[in-house]
Amino acid sequence: MHSSKCVEALMSPAKPSAKPADPRFSCGPTAKHPGWDPSKFDYSLMGRSHRSKEARAKIRELNGRIRRVLGVPEDYFIGITAGSDTGAVEMALWSLLGARPVDLFGWEAFGLDWVVDTMEQLKPGNAHAYTPEYGVLPDLSRADPAHDCVFTWNGTASGVRVPNGDWISDRREGLTICDATSAVFVMEMPWSKLDVTTFSWQKALGSEPAHGTIIMSPRAIKRLETHIPSWPIPKLYRLANKGKVNMEFFDTEVINTPSLMCIEDALDALKWAEGIGGRPAMAERTAKSYALIEKWVTRTPWIDFLARDPATRSQTSVCLVYTDPAYLALGPKERADFARRVFALLEDERVALDANAYKDAPPGLRVWCGATVEASNVAALLPWIEWAFASVKAEMLVPA
Fold first, then answer.
1. What distance in Å separates the CA atoms of residue 257 and residue 134, rounded to the nearest whole number?
2. Residue 62 domain flag
3. pTM higher than 0.90 for the full model?
């Protein structure tokens, strides 16, 4: 009788009553910051040239606020790129690689893209790729200080991050190129260890997509001055011409026409960030949301983090996988269908939008817990995941 009642309860799970006030948990573009109100934006520059005095002032303000909030050293250079974080990373790869051997660390979709683009497109020669399976950080001790190094600080699609920058040599001869798009503004960036740092506004700030930021150290600028790659560099990525660096790019001369609407939105997000206390406050908000999921995972037997080592678990792009024995007994296609159904229920109920796992990652859920997400919404989401999982399990796995 007891077993029958358990099955009956599982087949008719109680639907939660309270829903998240904001169901947007996408890992990019991410949720807007609390209080976001585009009606308060300054639209006076719409339809104006980005080269006008007023537009240049906006661009200079944007880069200045980024420097302040992130604590970027004064001798580092900040520029706006087209193509989001992807454009910023590609700009670095095309402009800087080829002078030295390069070590490439990729442990999820985007980091693997940089491996492919470097080894199969640019083909700089003497390139080494370290690419473990999803959920595991590669052996970072393989980074040779004499080589250039390309890596993601936080794997958005895997939920695996580097715990710190201690593995980067202070005596390195090569450059470090860091894709920090889902880490920056929340995780502390050790600037002395980083020669190129890139991110998109759509993840880090919850701002509009299309643009990214590239931050370069004096060592990276020197590379631009002393190294001419063997491959042609598209105009969109061209930071130097015959060893002469386009220094205006790091002021207000954006290579590709930027959207002044997007710049206005990014400025609004930065003002919000400064208003709540800057990067430390953004990190605190993120940690609060992550802690809710961590506590829930600990007491929930059928779900776990994709990241196996707690020290490498992302607190922004939190990737979850199902561990129920009946689920694990399914074939790959059935597991993918199970995860799709769970996500579909959450989306149909408008409690978690765009929270499905990345298409190349193991099936599961991916919940953004960055600073623009309220912890109260994360707390309200968790009972709905329990309901959706139980509903799909009753439908697919529990015998009639």
1. 37
2. yes
3. yes
